[in-house]
Amino acid sequence: MTRICVAISEADAASAIAVAREAIARGAECLEFRFDHMPMLPDDLTPFQQLEVRRIATLREREQGGEWEGTNEKKWEFLWRAARAGFDIDLELGHPLVNRAHLLKPAKVIVSYHDNKKTPQVARIIESLVECSARSDMAKAAYSVRTMHDLAQLVEATDWFSLSRERYTVIGMGEMGMVTRVLAHRMGSVLSYASVSPGKETAPGQLDLETSKWLGKEPVVTGIIGNPLDHTLSPLMHNAAFRAAAVRGVYLKWVTMVDELEDFLDVVEVLGIKGFNVTIPHKETIVPLLDRVDPVAERLGAVNTVVNEGGSLVGRNTDVIGVERTFEGHGVDVKGRTALVLGAGGASRSVLSFLMSKGADADITNRTMGKAESLAKTFGAEAVTARVAEEKAYDIIVNCTPLGMKGFPQEMSISPHVLREGQFVMDTVYNPPVTPLLAEAARKNAIAVNGKDMLIYQALASFEMWTGKAVDYEVMDKAFREALP
Ligand code: NAP
What we know:
- The chain contains 17 helices and 21 strands.
- It is α/β, with parallel strands linked by helices.
- Bound molecules: NADP nicotinamide-adenine-dinucleotide phosphate.
């Protein structure tokens, strides 16, 4: 059974004990005292004996990410006293004192290994765990996880090592490794290290106590894969939804390169990740790697949501739902209406799929006309040049190019002549909220709508697919507005 171990790093014994009491009151099941963070080691350890949970004493060496610079004799003298005062003892693999660890009995000894720079290959991780457990009551290995490949190595190594039935804790440090903390129980780890509160972390990616308690042992884990993911608002929106729906779960961010998709799917399988969103550049390339793709995603040739249905990965597309609900929300029935779609990428596919399935008469134009022609053929629309489009009168215009988006040229991809009074103009861009296209549309008294609703409605639909819970629009809208006021 995994226990939550709060890592306490305070400058003196009195404040460490005060924080420890607070942590116990809030549900800590074990405490690690980072004595290496105290400028003066306490002479009297008896006050710690009043703390009624398991305690670990650590004097982490500098090269393993700690602050301890004293001699080995001083370290031994302190740890021996700590063992006598009822602490379990953490020693670093390879440290000369590990050879004397048996003298610390009856204290339990953790032999730990920390690599703050990288995650090695599977065989090397297993080797370290074997070496740690040969000399201890519990092996601990913590690696800096920087890539999806690192994460896959760590998860695979742990899966193998779990067969040994040894007691161990394995940690992936950093944002990419966070899932190993969230799913510590499923990783088979004895301890799940947490900070007493946000900002008090002793290692990168550490969860805080309140979050650890809230998530419990078997949280619903979801997230997003893509590259880049710097600006995604999805974690904020989904994590707000988990709280609002009272579902113990989390939405994580996994930067994943093109050649790491299979690594990611291995992690999903071993850890039983419930589902995930897929964004650029994987929406199309993931399709052949899934067990099944629903008819909507199949028609689009693109998946933005994957649901793990009892080990079977099913690809879906909620972008279309996002588009549909945006139109519905503004009371726009597209049947028999003329529409112009700008751009011929992923977003255009969702928009065209919706428009054509609901009986609109849609044209598509794009910088690269060949792509517009290919999409027009797939969805039964018509590809037109910008010049031809500018001579026609459309009821609906939808921008699916990144023009107007933050970091892109603040321009329109078409002449303002296409904009007219009473038209419904949607920009899939939502940051900034008013793009040049929408500003011009408003000037012409058209109905101007940005991509926020599409984003929120697709997220609500994905969330419901993973959790079975419908969350109010306002929950995600609030999270969105907090991020982009
Ligand atoms: P994509 O697959 O890369 O397609 C981009 C399209 O825009 C392509 O047709 C491309 O033309 C065109 N384009 C790019 N730069 C251009 C420029 N400088 N001038 C004219 N055309 C240009 O991208 P996507 O996934 O469809 O995303 C497009 C936009 O939709 C993004 O702004 C994204 O934020 C937004 N989006 C919003 C949501 C939402 O939920 N609100 C969801 C998905 C996407 P070529 O074919 O010639 O390269």
